[in-house]
UniProtKB/TrEMBL annotation:
One Gene Ontology MF term: endo-1,4-beta-xylanase activity
Catalysed reactions, as listed in the record: Endohydrolysis of (1->4)-beta-D-xylosidic linkages in xylans
Enzyme Commission (EC) number: 3.2.1.8
Coiled coil: none
Entry's family note: Belongs to the glycosyl hydrolase 10 (cellulase F) family.
Annotated active site: 235 (nucleophile)
Protein name (record): Beta-xylanase
Domain GH10 intervals: 1-299
Swiss-Prot/TrEMBL GO biological process terms: xylan catabolic process
Included range, full protein: 46 to 345 of 484
Organism of derivation: Nonomuraea fuscirosea
UniProt keywords, alphabetically: Carbohydrate metabolism, Glycosidase, Hydrolase, Polysaccharide degradation, Signal, Xylan degradation
Length: 300
């Protein structure tokens, strides 16, 4: 196959990218994105601050621009993200307790209702676990509403759009030996045992010097999958752009039947949230395929 999306489809998987609405007028960008990828995540446009800038007033204009571009070009869409401590609108940052809990529920319902039946998988909860060795929850305004906030978010999401897969998404849960990974693993195991609706785990997979790719990545993917959830690689980028590491990531996903797809967090190095100097993506700033691109294509 000659594109990432078509190559991934040979094994029933997808290959996606983050899309920024502000770049949809850049034909060099859209040409590559349209040619290579068959899954789209809005890089910022479906986050809480974008979709509910004022309490109870939803705005889907930017989210819809990304959604419509994707669907008009035959791609599916991952929804990102409904409940998160980051990129909250100012009004939500001010809330606490039962008021914040209800605002979270209203937000999930408002956004999922707008996109009902249209989203392949939603990152219902993003980055709720703490870094470091605790293996516990991150302190946040949402966490302070009560430890059950994550399962409430998932139950709300299932009722709002039963057709969407519901994912828990986080970074630094790719290394099996890390406490954060084990914390999330224990939560997913608990949710499955108690019937809390969860369908997938998103491994963001932002690899860099402090959190490098580890050869136990395949064990992590296998272990989550064995709990009865899909695993998706949701925000892949590799600082330095090692072709070998990119190939390892693809090989690890392909080794696990329930690893259903891979999304890279941007198109060209110049589109990366890490800046072009990180050289973290598959195309250079001129849109040329990098060695990492060829390694990924050959591995798929
Ligand atoms: C990043 C975007 O790429 C940036 O444009 C934005 O300024 C900040 O957020 N984890 C996530 C993503 O779940 O939403 C983040 O995206 C990157 C880290």
């Amino acid at each position: 196959e000659s594109t990432l999306g078509a190559a991934a489809a040979q094994s029933g998987r997808y290959f996606g990218t983050a899309i920024a609405s502000g770049k949809l007028g850049d034909s060099a960008y859209t040409t590559i994105a349209n040619r290579e990828f068959n899954m789209v995540t809005a890089e910022n446009e479906m986050k809480i601050d974008a979709t509910e800038p004022n309490r109870g007033q939803f705005n889907f204009s930017a989210g819809d621009r990304v959604y419509n571009w994707a669907v008009q070009n035959g791609k599916r869409v991952r929804g990102h993200t409904l409940a998160w401590h980051n990129q909250q609108p100012g009004w939500m940052q001010q809330l606490s307790g039962s008021t914040l809990r209800q605002a979270m529920i209203n937000h999930i319902n408002g956004v999922m209702n707008h996109y009902k039946g249209k989203i392949y998988a939603w990152d219902v909860v993003n980055e709720a676990y703490a870094d470091g060795n605790s293996g516990g929850r991150r302190d946040s305004n949402l966490q302070r509403t009560g430890n059950d906030w994550i399962e409430v978010a998932f139950r709300t999401a299932r009722a709002a759009d039963p057709a969407a897969k519901l994912c828990y998404n986080d970074y630094n849960i790719d290394n099996w030996s890390w406490a954060k990974t084990q914390g999330v693993y224990n939560m997913v195991r608990d949710f499955k045992s108690r019937g809390v609706p969860i369908d997938c785990v998103g491994l963001q997979s932002h690899f860099n010097g402090n959190s490098p790719y580890n050869s136990n990545y395949r064990t992590t993917i296998q272990s989550f999958a064995a709990l009865g959830v899909d695993v998706q690689i949701t925000e892949l980028d590799i600082q330095g752009g090692s072709a070998t590491t990119y190939a390892n990531v693809v090989n690890d996903c392909l080794a696990v039947p329930r690893c259903t797809g891979i999304t890279v967090w941007g198109v060209r190095d110049t589109d990366s949230w890490l800046g072009s100097g990180a050289s973290a993506l598959l195309f250079d700033g001129n849109g040329n395929k990098k060695a990492a691109y060829t390694a990924v294509l050959n591995a798929l």
